[in-house]
Write a structure and sequence with these properties.
alpha+beta, two-stranded antiparallel ribbon, 326 residues, Uridine Diphospho-n-acetylenolpyruvylglucosamine Reductase, domain 2, globular
């Protein structure tokens, strides 16, 4: 197993290789956020910061066990039976029929699919997708003040929409399933439930869009796509959308044969370890759902002639998300 390597220029440890990445992600002393900054300072005090602070994936500790269980069960049920792939194909096909350029479609199709699975009506999907695009802009350390202000406003709109949805969630919808599983798990924090429904959309907007985009890159480069599920699974391993994450030492610990001091940071190279949706306590519970949605979207795209595309990659510190140009 590789040892951690110290990057003096960035002042942090670097973990690469599957075994070491799994060790880091499974260590309870290594937290998903710094103890002194549970919410990024740039968004703390606003609605977007309140949503961020309630996200299960951005918190550690036993008090988040019940929320995590509820979300895992609901997402597993949503991925069962192929409904997500079918919905992804139909939603993506509708957007293409409406004339969405591929560059916008890659982001809008996955998030609109999850919004549809949650129970939003078709007429609501464009607004939900637009608000989510404004919300996720604040999650990057590269965000500017205008983007953060827009994210706070979008967060309020998304929370209101989720609240209204939960009051009359369609039977069999993902929102209804999350609500049912929350009751079964003893998760009674209404704001946290709403925030984590917003969180499902935010993960989709970037991670699933990145998976879809990287799959489209593979097709443009000549990859075989007769089996879209196999293609997406291969891309998930070879070109994952999330290439790194960070862990923050809450106390002194041994990792990969070296001592990590309290307060130090570890850069975790997920892409190199083929762990693009994480591992351990904070592994993404929606990986199967994301792969099905991406596969459904590609099925919709294959039904029409696809022009040769060019692309660049979105500025990001931890993701590999192509932006397409026609």
């Amino acid at each position: 197993m590789q040892n951690l390597e110290w990057d003096a220029g960035r002042g942090l440890w670097v973990a690469a290789g599957a075994a070491l990445v799994e060790e880091v992600l499974s260590n309870p002393v290594l937290r998903v956020r710094p103890l002194a900054e549970p919410v990024p300072a740039a968004i703390a005090g606003g609605s977007a910061g309140e949503v961020f602070g309630a996200l299960v994936r951005m918190n550690d500790g036993e008090r988040h066990a019940a929320p995590k269980l509820a979300l895992q069960r609901a997402l597993a049920a949503a991925a069962d039976g192929g409904l997500a792939q079918q919905r992804g194909q139909s939603v993506a096909a509708q957007l293409l029929a409406e004339g969405r350029p591929v560059g916008a479609w890659v982001f809008e199709a996955p998030v609109s699919t999850v919004a549809s699975l949650l129970g939003f009506a078709g007429a609501q999907l464009p607004a939900v997708a637009r608000w989510m695009g404004e919300f996720v802009a604040c999650l990057s350390p590269l965000s500017n003040a205008e983007q953060i202000d827009q994210a706070h406003a979008a967060s309020l709109r998304l929370l209101a929409a989720m609240r209204e949805l939960l009051q009359a969630a369609p039977q069999g919808s993902l929102a209804a399933s999350v609500a049912q599983e929350a009751v079964a798990a003893g998760w009674q924090n209404d704001h946290a439930i709403l925030a984590n429904l917003v969180g499902l959309l935010s993960q989709t907007y970037e991670a699933t869009a990145g998976l879809l985009g990287n799959s489209l890159v593979a097709i443009q480069q000549g990859a075989e796509c007769s089996d879209v599920n196999a293609l997406v699974a291969q891309v998930m391993e070879s070109d994952p959308p999330i290439v790194n994450t960070r862990r923050f030492a809450a106390g002194r610990c041994m990792v990969g044969g070296v001592t990590v001091e309290a307060g130090q940071v570890i850069l975790v190279m997920l892409g190199e370890a083929r762990r693009g949706f994480g591992h351990g306590r904070h592994a993404c519970p929606g990986q199967q759902l994301a792969q099905q949605i991406a596969a459904g979207c590609i099925e919709a795209l294959r039904s029409r002639p696809l022009p040769q595309l060019s692309w660049t990659y979105r500025a990001s510190v931890n993701a590999r998300i192509p932006e397409f140009h026609q």
